[in-house]
Design a protein that fits this description.
The chain has 274 residues and is of the alpha/beta class. It contains 8 helices and 7 strands. The protein has one domain: Rossmann fold, CATH 3.40.50. 39% of the residues are buried.
């Protein structure tokens, strides 16, 4: 029996990348998962990659409070319950300096990452308070979350992840007297479309050598973050809240740095885009 047997989870932005890896990990541990994306094509393609009956696909724009509320209601009706809500949907800004940034693009990152997390958190907490007092809310941290972790050239993304972290800790404090678990997950550095250099901006072209070296050293497959998400959604977190887990913790970061020369020599660096 899997660690999530009988559980139901919603994972926003789970048609690809880290969210998709989390959805697959949850299914492998016995959970039913609601896979979402703002693109119907992406949802349908993602659902086709799961065992029949293990997931439900739902188009959802996390910027729409109404759509997120409908997502929760439909998921609960379809599977009978919701045990875990993961606010994974997010975007990053183009790699450039503040002076050269596009205000509209910068604003879209703020809206998606912060307002989207707010909409999902609000809908999940309201459901848990009424229907499942032991529900679990997991928000996604990122670069910019930890003290001393700066994000030059992607200032909107870094600012949003710092904001999401403070928001999550605040929500955990608000509901600390309930059995609801409110947690924060840092997925580490993963080669996804978000960090792809397929269409580099002029600034990224200047920084590309350094950027690729950082990826070679610290990037990991999304399965690492997915494993942490399973742990957070399992009985391990029962009765706990305000938990922070990172796929790029201090010890793991040191290990990746120390093993980098050997991975480079033996050509075992994983450069796959997930």
């Amino acid at each position: 029996m899997g660690r999530l047997e009988g559980k139901v989870a919603i994972v926003t932005g789970s048609s690809r990348g880290i969210g998709n890896a989390i959805a697959h990990a949850f299914v492998s541990e016995g959970a039913k998962v609601v896979v979402t994306s703002s693109s119907r094509t992406n949802v349908e393609a993602a659902v086709a990659g799961f065992p029949e009956g293990s997931v439900h696909g739902r188009v959802c724009d996390v910027l729409s409070r109404g759509e997120v509320q409908a997502l929760v209601a439909e998921s609960a009706e379809r599977f009978g319950r919701i045990d875990c809500f993961i606010n994974n949907a997010g975007i990053s800004d183009p790699f450039c300096s503040l002076a050269e940034s596009d205000p509209d693009a910068w604003g879209r990152v703020i809206d998606t990452n912060i307002k989207g997390t707010y909409n999902g958190s609000r809908a999940a907490i309201r459901y848990f308070l009424c229907e499942n007092p032991h529900g679990k809310l997991i928000n996604m941290a990122g670069s910019g979350t930890d003290s001393g972790s700066n994000t030059p050239w992607i200032s909107a993304y870094g600012a949003t992840k710092a904001a999401v972290a403070r928001f999550t800790h605040a929500v955990a404090a608000e509901y600390r007297h309930t059995p609801i678990s409110v947690m924060l997950l840092h997925p580490g550095l993963v080669r996804t479309a978000m960090v792809s250099a397929e269409n580099p901006t002029p600034e990224l072209q200047k920084q590309l050598a350094t950027f690729n070296t950082i990826l070679d050293i610290f990037a990991q497959p999304p399965s690492v973050a997915a494993g942490l998400a399973v742990r957070m959604a399992s009985g391990w977190s029962d009765g706990k809240t305000d938990i922070y887990l990172s796929a790029l913790s201090g010890m793991r970061k040191k290990r990746l740095l120390l093993t980098f020369p050997f991975r480079k020599i033996f050509n075992t660096i994983d450069r796959q885009t997930y």
